[in-house]
Amino acid sequence: MAAAPATRSAALGARRWGLWFAVVAFLLALPHVFDSPIALAVMNKMGIAIIFALSYNMMLGQGGMLSFGHAVYFGLGGFIAMHALNRLAGGPWALPVQLLPLVGGLAGLGFGALFGSFSTNRAGTVFAMISLGIVELVASSSLILKGFFGGEEGISGNRTKGLVLWGIRFASDVQVYYLIAFWVVVATGLMYAFSRTPIGRMANAVRDNPERAEFVGYSQRWVRFVSFCAAGFFAGIAGGLFAVNYEILTEEAVGLARSGNVLLMTYIGGIGYFAGPIIGAVIFTFLESMLSDYTPVWLLYLGILFLATVLFVPTGFAGVLMMHEPARRAGRLRRLVLPYLATIAVGLCAAIGVIGLLEMVHFWSAAAVGRTRMHLFWTTVDITSAVPWVVFVALAAGGALALRRVAPRAAAAWNEATYRPEAVGR
Question: Beta 248-249 vs 155-156: how paired, if at all?
C-alpha cells in the first residue's frame, strides 16, 4: 500500500523534470524557427513580461495583495542596473552583462523591503491604495530627480561596453534572447520553488483566512512582507533584463500604465494557477506587438478582452484549460469538438461584426476630410455607404443571438464530458 503513493510521487517528479527539460529545449530551438528581427524582438519582450507577470502573481495570486504599483520595482531595478552598467563599465568593478539582471533584482528587493515595511501592515483596499500612492510618488519623482531618472529623456547605456564573459558581447538580438531565456528559466524555477516552501503555502493561507493563520502562530504581516520582497526581487530582475534589451529607460518604466499592463496580463492568464501569468504574458505581448501594427485602437481590444475575462472566465485562460482536465483523463475530449467549433464559429461572426463597427467608427471620426474609403479585413469599404454598416451590424447581432443558443449546448457537453458518477456517490 505504501509503495503506490511513492510510485505516484516519483512519476509526478519525473513528469515535472521532463516538462522543465522540454521547456529548455523549446527555448533553445525557438530562435532557429523564428529568426527574423521582429520575431526575436517580440520573443525578448515576452520573456521579460513572463518574469514580470509571475512576480506580480506572487503578490496577487498567492498572497492576495492587489497592487497598482508593481512597476516601481520593475523600473527601479532597471534604472539601478543601467546605472551599474554605465558607472562600472571599463573600471576595475565592471560587471558582466549576464549579472545585470541580478543587480536589478537586488535593487527591487531593497525597494520592496523599504516600501513593504509599511504597506504590508494592511491588506485589501488599504494596501491597494498605498501601492497606488507609491507608484504616483515614484513616477512624479522621476521628473524631479533628473540625475537618477534622466528627466523626460531617461537614461541610456550600451550593453556591449560591459565586461565580456565567455566571449559574449551581446551585440546581436539572438545573444540577448538567450540571456533572457536563461533568466526566464532560472526565475521561473525559483518562483515555483518559493510557492512550494512553507512561507509560500502560508501566503495562500493568509490570502484565504488571515485570522486562522494568526491563530496557528503565523504573523500575516510578516508573511505578506516576505512575499512582497520576493515579488520585488523578481520584478527587479525583469527590469534589469528590460535595461539590457532596450538599452534605455524612461519614467514610463515606473509609471501606472506599466503596472496596469502587468495586472491585465496576469488576470487574463489566470491568477489561480502558476502557469496563468505565463499564458497571459504571451497573449498580451503578442496582441500588443501585433495589433498595434494594424489598428490604432488596439488598446480598446485589450480592454474588451480583459472585461470578457472578468465577466465570463474569471479563472483566466489557465483556468479554462484546467476545466478540461477531467474530460481529458476520462478520454471524452472528442465529445467537445463539435459543440466548441459551433460556439467558436458564431463567436467569430459576432467578433468580426463588432470589430468592423469599431474600426469604421474610428475611421469616421479620425480620417481627414474627404477620405471615405478604408481597408478592413480582406476588402475595402466605403463608410458613406449603408451596406458595410448593415453587414457588420447583422454579423454582430446575429452572432450574439446565435451565441446565446449554442453556448448552453457547449456548456452541457462540457458537463457531460466531465461528469464523474463516483463523485456523485460520495
Answer: antiparallel
- Cβ atoms of 183 and 175 closer than 8 Å: no
Rounded to whole angstroms, how far apart are CA atoms 265 and 287? 11
Domains, the chain, in order of start with CATH, read 16-261 (1.10.3470), 325-420 (no CATH)
- Which amino acid does the sequence have at 423? A
CB atoms within 10 A of CB 54: 31
Q: Can you tell me the distance from the alpha carbon of 300 to that of 296, in angstroms, rounded to the nearest whole number?
A: 9
- The per-residue pLDDT of the chain, averaged, comes to 87
Residues 6+ apart with CB under 8 A from 390: none
Q: How many CB atoms lie within 10 A of CB 29?
A: 10
1: burial class by Cβ within 10 Å (0-12, 13-18, 19+)? exposed
Give the count of alpha carbons within 13 A of 1, CB side only. Answer: 0
pLDDT digits (tens, 9 = 90+) for 376-416: 888 888 888 888 899 999 999 999 999 999 989 988 988 88
- The pLDDT score that the predictor gives to residue 73 is 95
Question: Rounded to whole angstroms, how far apart are CA atoms 73 and 236?
Answer: 5
Nearest CA-CA partner of 234 in 195, 288, 286, 268: 195
Q: What are phi and psi of 375, to 5 degrees?
A: -90, 125
Cell triple for 42:
517580440
pLDDT digits (tens, 9 = 90+) for 215-231: 887 888 899 999 999 99
Burial of 335 (0-12, 13-18, 19+ CB in 10 A): middle
Question: How far apart, in whole angstroms, are the C-alpha atoms of residue 224 and residue 247?
Answer: 33
Within its chain, how far is the Cα of 397 from the centroid? 32
Give kind and range of the element (H or E) at residue 380.
strand 379-382
Question: DSSP code of 247?
Answer: S
Structure-block grid coordinates of residue 61: 495570486
Pair 239, 109: CB distance under 8 Å = no
- What distance in Å separates the CA atoms of residue 128 and residue 126, rounded to the nearest whole number? 5
- The pairing of beta strand 155-156 with beta strand 379-382: unpaired
Q: Under a CB-based contact definition with an 8 Å cutoff, are residues 188 and 238 in contact?
A: no
DSSP secondary structure, 172-198, as one string:
SHHHHHHHHHHHHHHHHHHHHHHHHSH
